[in-house]
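Worked example 2:
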Amino acid sequence: MDVTELILHQHAEQRRMFAMLDEIPREDTETLGAVWKRLEILLETHAEAEELFVYPLLLRVGTGQADADDVEDEVEDAVKDHNEIRDGIRRAAQEDVGSNAWWEAVVDCRVANSDHMAEEERQDLADFRRHTDLQARHDIAVRFLRHESLRAAYGVTPGDKDPDEFIDQHT
């Protein structure tokens, strides 16, 4: 098990769940709400686990990949992206499921998430694979899954992180 492969798998799951929302009849608000709640939990537990287990080590060993200026830029942008995703989740929570305002918040969340995943896949994950060995990636994957599973069992409330404070704390 490799945490970078786990993250890629969860990215595919996130894409699939957003696509499922597209397929649910608009008037079936019970199903929309249930699927959205499941996706909301996945998005937040995934972001939290990255912030706890991947980004701190990446800040210590990474150098920056692809179009990132450096590793700090890579991680700061990722944390900001997580906050944008959380903003969409919070906005959706304030609207009636299935309403135009709810869909607008969900779409904004989807766009922020899609942009984040693309950047993370070409920057953070490439950097992480290049600078950590398979055993470290396995050990982190186990901790990542444990954290997500325990948090998801009880539901989550999204909470923003200050990107600058995050960088300062982990460098």
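Residues 3-170 form one domain. Helices lie at 3-23, 29-61, 71-93, 100-122, 124-131, 134-152, 163-170.
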